[in-house]
Amino acid sequence: MKYLLVICVILCCLSLLDFPSGYYIGLRFFVTMTLITEIILEYKKKASWEWIIVFIVISIGFNPVFPVYLYEKTQWAPIDLLVATVLSIRILDSYKPSKIS
């Protein structure tokens, strides 16, 4: 499932470019659905609650059902970069070697 997070990172970075509004609606949908999937997987693995909480917060901000409107792209740009950074950290964190007892 990490490849979906990679796609989210790429899409968030691409959102800094000028696209029609449909792109941003699709971005909201894709990010939200990917993070809901990650929340479910993290919960089933009984993984760290920190990532689950972070994913919930991002999902609320990006949800397409009750969207958060900032109306200006310049206000969304830092949020998109922050989300791309957080998701990149999660991707890298998932590849850490596990401790051997």
Topology:
Blueprint: H1 2-14, H2 21-44, H3 49-62, H4 73-94
Helix pairs in contact: 1-2, 1-4, 2-3
Number of domains as seen in the coordinates: 1
Kindly estimate the percentage of residues that lie in beta strands according to DSSP. under 5%
Structural class: mainly alpha
As a percent range, the share of helical residues equals over 70%
Order of helical and strand elements: HHHH
TL;DR of this structure?
Helices cover 72% and strands 0% of the residues. By secondary structure, the protein is mainly alpha-helical.
What would you say this structure looks like, in words?
This protein starts with a helix and ends in a 7-residue tail after the last helix. The model has no long low-confidence stretch (mean pLDDT 86). The chain has one domain (2-91). It is mainly alpha-helical and 101 residues long. It is 72% helix and 0% strand.
Overview features:
globular, 4 helices, 72% helix
